[in-house]
Design brief:
The protein has ten helices and eleven strands. The chain has 292 residues and is of the alpha/beta class. It has two domains: 28-113, Leucine Dehydrogenase, chain A, domain 1 (Rossmann fold, 3-Layer(aba) Sandwich); 140-273, Rossmann fold, CATH 3.40.50.720. The strands form three sheets. Strands 1-11-8-7-5-6 form a six-stranded parallel sheet. The protein has a three-stranded parallel sheet with strand order 3-2-4, sandwiched between helices. A two-stranded antiparallel sheet has the order 9-10. It binds nicotinamide-adenine-dinucleotide (NAD). InterPro entries: Aminoacid_DH-like_N_sf, NAD(P)-bd_dom_sf, THF_DH/CycHdrlase, THF_DH/CycHdrlase_cat_dom, THF_DH/CycHdrlase_CS, THF_DH/CycHdrlase_NAD-bd_dom. This is Bifunctional protein FolD. Residues 139-290 form the Tetrahydrofolate dehydrogenase/cyclohydrolase NAD(P)-binding domain.
Length: 292
Amino acid sequence: MQLLNGKETAKAILDSLEIDVAQRAASGKKVPHLAAILVGNNGASETYVASKVKTCSEIGFISTLIQFEEDVTEIKLLEKIEALNEDMDVDGILVQLPLPAHISEKKVIESIDPAKDVDGFHPINIGKMTLGEKDAFISATPYGIMLLLEHYKIETKGKHAVVIGRSHIVGRPMSILLSNNSNPGNCTVTLCHSKTTNLKEICLQADIIVAAIGIPEFVKADMVKEGAVVIDVGITRIKDASKKSGHRLVGDVDFTNVAPKTSYITPVPGGVGPMTIAALMKNTFKACDNRN
Ligand code: NAD
């Protein structure tokens, strides 16, 4: 079993981006500028946005954090996005999800200029990704997983990949990317979800499992074939009095019992999470490069 070290891989990607940004700056070009919108006081969202903003500054990007109270109106939020769409200096816009129930995530996502949609959630980018078009912005988590598979040169061609979870931001794009005629890709993909009846049998046929469910330790050892590659997307905070923070992060895979059966597995934390941020930064760089 080998760990797929997302922390190290993400660092290598970020180091290389830092050099690219410095080269842009040295040749008088603008540096990438990411605008992040955070609504309300969701602890996990605050943490995610803070680490994105911090990463921007570490690699020489400009970032702007725009915070709204929980009760901000949908119109006010849409007006801000429109202003960011028009702002020539802003290359990438992300709106941290989830949004409060009174705001339509669909309307918000569709209001972002697809050329600045560095989260890759806009239907235009999802369509381009599905068609395998190179100029698509790919949703950061599945893109990060593809970069991780690429980094470790994991053979995916002809393999059976089972993706568990069909969310628009993780499971579904992951299933499309793995099935595309690309490398990594060219898998035969089965997409499982909450209504799948024979999940264990399907998982046992998988050469690659991507777990994006949001239920801690859902994937057990008896669901995994010897030698499978297991990618754990799940991050659930569970209370743990023994930790200074009072909590710990748990993935969707029963790591202790599953890991010995695998050829490769991602840890939680330190697997998919850092890759998501690295992929977002790659998208933001690309948005800047496309526009300037
Ligand atoms: P989601 O709640 O939108 O989707 C969960 C999916 O799991 C659904 O499609 C559902 O059909 C499926 N599911 C639920 N119960 C199931 C069951 N019993 N059997 C089979 N499928 C079942 O979640 P999401 O946004 O895709 O996130 C999934 C997990 O990944 C969460 O823990 C989230 O925190 C984490 N996440 C991590 C990152 C990262 O950067 N590492 C990014 C995004 C999400």
